[in-house]
Amino acid sequence: MKRxxxxxxxxxxxxNVNAQLFTKEKVANNINNIDQKLLTWGYFLGFNQYDFKxxxxxxxxxxxxxxxxxxxxxxxxDLRINDYMNLRLEPGVFFxxxxxxxxxxxxxxxxxxxxxxxxxxxxxxxxxxxxLKISTKRINNFKPFIIGGFSTAxxxxxxxxxxxxxxxxxxxxxxxxxxxxxxFGIDLYLLYFKFTPSIRGIFSFNDEIVRxxxxxxxxxxxxxxxxxxxxxxxxxxx
Length: 238
Description:
Blueprint: H1 2-22, E1 39-56, E2 64-67, E3 69-80, E4 85-89, E5 92-101, E6 118-135, E7 142-155, E8 176-189, E9 194-204, E10 223-237
């Protein structure tokens, strides 16, 4: 008899969970019908990990990128197009650090120290994306979506205008970068606000390296192109 009531209880619980997640019944967390507003605002914060994609002129050892997690935060402006599409502007500030490790083969025939094999690349980006968010139909307090678009970023730590180059220990990048972005997430409708965790990948279009004065520089001479790519983990509040 106890086993019967236990099984009956599991059936009732599973039916309630199914009703909450997969049925079209009315839900309590409407938070002022936020999805029906033409314009909504919010903010985001999260973590990022940037990388570099290198293309080379000669078949030497790869330049290794030691990645670390950075931090970012910003604002959100959301324009409702219809029940399933939104146009979003998400300006933010992103902080990250990447370390480049060069192989000794790049300095063949030259005198070098251990410091010459390592370049620390600190970046502070003012990031401005224009994104299209495409959502499914809302399922009670959940709404999955995909998001994608284009963005530009100003690297405040680029060193582009620095007259010193790697021979003086200064690694230089271009100030302006252009990206395409794609990601996915889920809107969670809480009692007083909408909380959205999401993951997004970014990929730059343009070559970002500023080459040294010496065309045979061991740091930049073999680099045909250097392009940023990265992953964002965002937490959005609206």
